[in-house]
Amino acid sequence: MRSKPELDIDDAGRAGGPRLEPGRHASFLVVALANRISASASRAYMRQFGVGVMEWRAMALLAANPGITANQIAQVSGVDKSAVSRAVHLLLKRGDIQASEDKADNRRALLTLTPTGLELHDRIIVESLAREGLLLTGLSDSERGQLFELLKRMLANMPLVHARGPGA
Asked: Which domain covers residue 54, as residue numbers?
């Protein structure tokens, strides 16, 4: 079994410019964590429930916000529209969600979970919350609250990141 790479890399004595210190780089750590969570969840949910993590994300957002669109799912989750579209198509085909015409804009489809989709959601969320509990093992309630607040603040800073142009 391969050992995991050490994240705290000491770059003392290296020639050249600055080097990424993965263990002290927020973007690297957040992406590495998100990628590992997604890959693990996708394998587990596919094996247990027959859906991948993208389908699960769509279902979770639809359970919390019935009647949202695929574009809104993409915006909230930060996932590419094409990935959301594929997940929505699969869930429609399986009968886990249904689409209805938006009377205000007939180009948009409003999505909701079907009774079978809601039942599947309710089974998956138990596993999802158990997995999150394991992820947060060792963090106190106060630390968990701080973590969520810090992550929300980082999300709120994304317009600043997007606004940074080339060479700025």
From this structure: 24-126
Residue 8 lies in a domain: no
Tokens standing for 148? Answer: 């969520």
List the chain pLDDT tens, one digit each, 168 residues.
555 555 444 555 556 788 888 888 899 999 999 999 999 999 999 999 999 999 999 999 999 999 999 999 999 999 999 999 999 999 999 999 999 998 888 788 999 999 999 999 999 999 999 999 999 999 999 999 999 999 999 999 999 998 987 776
Please enumerate in sequence order all residues whose Cβ is within 8 A of that of 109, keeping only pairs 6 or more positions apart, or say none: 69, 70, 99, 100, 101, 102
Say how far apart CA 139 and CA 114 lie, in whole Å. 36
3 state SS of 16: coil
Q: What is the rounded distance in angstroms from the CA atom of residue 141 to the CA atom of residue 164?
A: 35
Q: Which residues pair with 102 in a beta bridge?
A: 105
* Domain harbouring 117, CATH code: 1.10.10.10
Total domains in the fold of the chain:
1
The whole model's pTM is what?
0.81
Note whether residue 97 is domain-resident: yes
